[in-house]
């Protein structure tokens, strides 16, 4: 089934206009991640990864993440474009979210900007914000896109969308 693109309104983007392979774009939006009542990341220096059919993934510089709350795990995955991902468990005052963040420690040259940055699954955090707007998580348990009122779909991730 081919999805029907939703026409973006003023100030919106359609994920169907994003490129494939994905593109990395800097943003000065205010991005925050909250877990167990603690702001564990806060930045205006995030990178957005834009890929056809996906809501943007937000990558935050490690310098703006409270790394004491993140612990590396043995889990890894491979992206055809960004390379091998390394995962982290978030642990804040005894509450944990396993494999809730990831990074690309050695991305290939087109994605070198992602080195030193981390992404978070919004569905595993208490709240993620972009310019004070509460993010909605991308459906499914694999992709980590951040849905705001700025983007329209339909979005990959729900059952039946894997072949988009």
Ordered list of secondary-structure elements with their pairings:
Layout: E1 13-14, E2 23-26, E3 31-35, E4 38-43, E5 47-50, E6 57-61, E7 70-79, E8 83-92, E9 95-103, E10 117-120, E11 127-130, E12 133-134, E13 136-137, E14 146-147, E15 151-152
Tell me the number of strands: 15
- Runs in which pLDDT lies below 50 for 5 or more consecutive residues are none
Q: What is the averaged pLDDT score?
A: 96
What is the alpha-carbon Rg in Å?
Answer: 15 Å
Main sheet: strand order: 2-5-6-10-9-8-7
What order do the helices and strands follow?
Answer: EEEEEEEEEEEEEEE
- Shape descriptor reads globular
Helix/strand-derived class?
mainly beta
Largest sheet: 7 strands, antiparallel
Query: How many angstroms separate the termini?
Result: 8 Å
Helix content: under 10%
Please report the number of helical segments.
0
Oligomer: single chain
Percent range for β-strand residues: 35-45%
How does this structure look, described?
This protein is mainly beta. It has a domain at 15-68 and 108-152. It contains no helices and 15 strands. The protein has strands at 13-14, 23-26, 31-35, 38-43, 47-50, 57-61, 70-79, 83-92, 95-103, 117-120, 127-130, 133-134, 136-137, 146-147, 151-152. The strands form four sheets. A seven-stranded antiparallel sheet has the order 2-5-6-10-9-8-7, with no helix packed on it. The protein has a four-stranded antiparallel sheet with strand order 4-3-11-12, with no helix packed on it.
């Amino acid at each position: 089934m081919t999805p029907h693109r939703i026409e973006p309104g003023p100030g919106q983007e359609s994920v169907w206009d994003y490129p494939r392979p994905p593109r990395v774009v800097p943003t000065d939006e205010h991005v925050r991640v909250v877990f167990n009542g603690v702001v564990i990341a806060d930045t205006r220096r995030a990178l957005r990864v834009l890929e056809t059919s996906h809501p943007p993934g937000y990558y935050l510089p490690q310098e703006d993440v409270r790394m004491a709350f993140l612990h590396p795990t043995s889990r890894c995955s491979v992206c055809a474009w960004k390379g091998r991902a390394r995962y982290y468990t978030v642990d804040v005052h005894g509450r944990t979210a396993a494999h809730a963040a990831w990074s690309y420690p050695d991305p290939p040259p087109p994605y070198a900007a992602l080195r030193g940055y981390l992404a978070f699954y919004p569905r595993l955090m208490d709240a993620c914000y972009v310019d004070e707007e509460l993010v909605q998580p991308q459906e499914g348990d694999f992709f980590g896109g951040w849905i705001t009122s700025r983007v329209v779909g339909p979005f990959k991730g729900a059952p039946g969308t894997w072949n988009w």
